[in-house]
Design a protein that fits this description.
This protein is mainly α. The chain folds into two domains: 1-30; 32-80. The chain has three helices and no strands. It has helices at 2-24, 33-48, 57-72. The protein is elongated, with a radius of gyration of 16 Å.
Length: 80
């Protein structure tokens, strides 16, 4: 559990550093950029589901997709 909190804090600090550097260099980030980013992540994760079902990746990816959808305010019950 402590490792997950540390990982999230590290991830959050990387995002903050990117946003600060990007905006400081004149970049314009759209409103809702985190939600857009999360949606794009879902496309990449969904592509991983095309691997053969006997590999462990699809089960891991399905958990990540469910978690991401829950964070985004949606739910998925049953198989993906």
């Amino acid at each position: 559990m402590a490792g997950q909190k540390r990982q999230r804090a590290h991830h959050s600090s990387l995002i903050d550093a990117f946003v600060s550097g990007f905006a400081g260099s004149g970049g314009d980030l759209p409103p809702g950029r985190r939600r857009i980013s999360a949606a794009l992540d879902l496309f990449a994760l969904a592509d991983l589901l095309t691997r053969p079902p006997d590999q462990p990746i699809p089960a891991q990816v399905a958990r990540l997709i469910r978690k991401r959808l829950t964070i985004m305010g949606s739910t998925v019950d049953g198989p993906l």
